[in-house]
Design a protein that fits this description.
It is a single chain. Helix content is about 35%, strand content about 15%. The chain has nine helices and nine strands. Helix 1 crosses helix 6 and helix 2 crosses helix 3. The chain starts with a strand and ends with a helix.
Length: about 280
């Protein structure tokens, strides 16, 4: 039985990931700042800004899923967000390197492309947005995700570690769909994130699939749903909110998504199973 260390195991996504790992009969240890009630695994209180604590807690792990981070650019001062996310990623990867751990799965974000939280709003250069799209951040949160991916590439160059960075869009739990639906009829409501989301159960599946994927390198993958978080068809959304979009690299029929998750499907053997509208039926 493999032992998987999950940083942020007591968090929103972390709890789903821990439970899915346990269901698949992995041995799990959660590394977080506090204990989470009812989490079905061993828990160690760890501050990811302290390399010694991280390395000590990760001893005996065969792989790591790193989810501990500030999950959005709101609620904390930007310098704190940047420092927390970047140093946490560095320390987890450095500890993995010291301990000889060969596979790390990292939580990244589609915010790394820049348009979600841009100070000066801009449109993507083409649609759908795939992993080759330039990262053009204008703020600290998205930049922290870009830097995390660069750190992962450095560790692969240094010792051959395989790192899978998962660029999550808005992660939605089933109990949140009723609230999110209130904005789904307005074209502008989720425009800055390109109306993208991923069900939390699909996000957890992607984390677990990344442990087994045939990856040799540091790769980044869009983990997004197969539809938009909108009741309006995608072509109409584009006309309303991104009229300047000229480079459309596929037809957008119905509520087709504006982020491509094709590489994640190919690399991980994963695909989204849940849609927000089905959850309300």
């Amino acid at each position: 039985m493999q032992t998987i260390a999950v940083t942020g195991g007591g968090g929103k996504l972390g709890q789903y990931v821990v439970r899915e790992l346990v269901r698949q009969q992995y041995k799990v240890v959660s590394l977080d700042r506090t204990h989470a009630a009812g989490l079905p695994c061993r828990q160690i209180v760890v501050d990811t800004s302290d390399l010694g604590q991280v390395a000590s807690a990760m001893q005996g792990a065969d792989a790591v899923i790193h989810l501990a981070a500030v999950p959005s650019p709101t609620g904390f001062p930007v310098p704190d967000i940047f420092a927390n996310n970047v140093m946490g990623s560095y320390n987890v990867l450095e500890a993995a390197s010291l301990l000889g751990i060969r596979r790390v799965v990292m939580s990244s974000s589609t915010s790394c492309y820049g348009f979600a939280w841009a100070v000066k709003p801009f449109a993507p250069r083409y649609f759908p947005v795939d992993e080759a799209h330039p990262q053009l951040t204008q703020e600290g949160y998205g930049l922290s995700k870009t830097v995390g991916e660069l750190i992962a590439e450095m560790y692969h160059r240094r010792n051959g570690m395989s790192v899978v960075s998962l660029r999550f869009s808005l992660i939605a739990a089933p109990e949140e769909y009723a609230r999110l639906k209130r904005g789904a009829g307005k074209a502008e409501e989720f425009a800055k994130i390109l109306w993208s989301y991923v069900d939390i159960r699909d996000a957890a599946d992607a984390c677990v699939a990344s442990l087994r994927a045939d990856v040799d390198g540091a790769v980044a993958l869009n983990i997004t749903g197969d539809d938009t978080l909108s009741e309006i068809e995608t072509a109409e959304l584009l006309r309303a909110c991104y009229p300047e979009a000229a480079d459309l690299r596929q037809p957008f029929e119905g509520r087709a998504p504006l982020f491509s998750n094709a590489l994640a499907k190919e690399t991980l053997g994963w695909r989204p199973r849940y849609r927000w509208a089905d959850g309300l039926a």
